[in-house]
Specification:
This protein has about 100 residues and is α+β, with helices and mostly antiparallel strands. The protein has three helices and four strands. It has a single domain, classed as Alpha-Beta Plaits, CATH 3.30.70. A four-stranded antiparallel sheet has the order 2-3-1-4. Helix 1 runs antiparallel to helix 3.
Amino acid sequence: MTTVVVLFNLRSDTDADAYENWARTTDLPIVGALSAVEDFSVYKASGLLGGGASPYQYVEILRLRSLPELRIQTKSETIQRVAREFRQFADAPIFIVTESL
């Protein structure tokens, strides 16, 4: 199974409550409803297991049914709008594509 892990911090001018509300009401329901997506979750980092602050404030996990299908679906106007909105909140997100061993 392909999983996309997104690591990011909020832009300095972003209100965390506004982002989290947007994630719950827009990002999660719209992206999670794509047929290419098996499961989509967003997590707020609370620290490192060994102690200390996390280098990232948020982590998104997208478990995919099909990466090629996701690439097609991300070209839709709705997903393009969601992506633009996400970029207004997130500062230089890192998208890591992974495969199960």
